[in-house]
């Protein structure tokens, strides 16, 4: 896998890195626009003082004595020139997409954790209300009994006064 070094500054330097699962006895060669670059094997490619000629698609080839060779996906190095302003450039490739993907996954997980927390908090609130509800019912029943007893006492007094 080739990973871009980031945004290019005019006349600046960009470093492309080729990562392989097995680092021992692997030789890494670089290719630009399908043509091998005449450089010694290295897992890093440094482009110093980038200029329009450096624009192209770069990939690396990992050569292992027993596994053969494997070529990575390409990374585009783009140098843009404005007629009025200075040269600007950027690097496109899978590595930048990987960072965006990782940030998206982390953001999604954060939202899921917040949602689960809100659901659990709401359930606890309902359970507390349900526990308080029976206590309130008992208090209301006692108040009703007291009211009934008070209303029965005057009736008993009236019936006793009118009695034999």
UniProtKB/TrEMBL annotation:
- The principal localisation class reads other
CDD domains associated with the record: Ig
Task: Give the membrane topology.
Answer: Single-pass type I membrane protein
Compartmental location: Cell projection; Membrane
In terms of SMART domains, this protein maps to: IG, IGc2
**What SUPFAM superfamilies does its record include?**
Immunoglobulin
- The answer, when asked if tRNA-binding is one of the entry's keywords, is no
Report residue spans for region: Disordered: 125-164
Q: Name one GO cellular component term.
A: cell projection
Bilayer-crossing regions: 99-121
Q: Which UniProt keywords apply?
A: Cell projection, Glycoprotein, Membrane, Receptor, Transmembrane, Transmembrane helix
State the Pfam families in the record.
Answer: Ig_2 (PF13895)
Q: Please note every region of biased composition (Acidic residues).
A: 136-156
- The Ig-like domain is annotated at 1-76
Tell me the first and last residues of the signal peptide. none
- Keyword Oxidoreductase recorded: no
* Protein name, entry field: Advanced glycosylation end product-specific receptor variant D
Q: Which organism is it from?
A: Canis lupus familiaris (Dog)
| Gene (name only) | AGER
């Amino acid at each position: 896998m080739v990973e871009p070094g980031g945004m290019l500054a005019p006349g600046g330097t960009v470093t492309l890195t080729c990562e392989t699962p097995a680092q021992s006895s692997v030789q890494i060669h670089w290719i630009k626009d399908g043509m091998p670059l005449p450089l010694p094997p290295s897992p890093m490619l440094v482009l110093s003082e980038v200029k329009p000629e450096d624009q192209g698609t770069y990939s690396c080839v990992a050569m292992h004595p027993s596994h053969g060779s494997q070529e990575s996906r390409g990374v585009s190095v783009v140098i843009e020139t404005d007629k009025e302003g200075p040269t600007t450039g950027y690097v496109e490739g899978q590595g930048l997409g990987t960072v965006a993907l990782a940030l998206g996954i982390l953001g999604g997980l954060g939202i899921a954790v917040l949602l689960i927390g809100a659901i659990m908090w709401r359930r606890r609130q309902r359970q507390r209300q349900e526990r308080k509800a029976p206590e309130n019912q008992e208090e209301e029943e006692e108040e009703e009994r007291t009211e009934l007893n008070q209303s029965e006492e005057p009736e008993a007094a009236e019936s006793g006064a009118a009695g034999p």
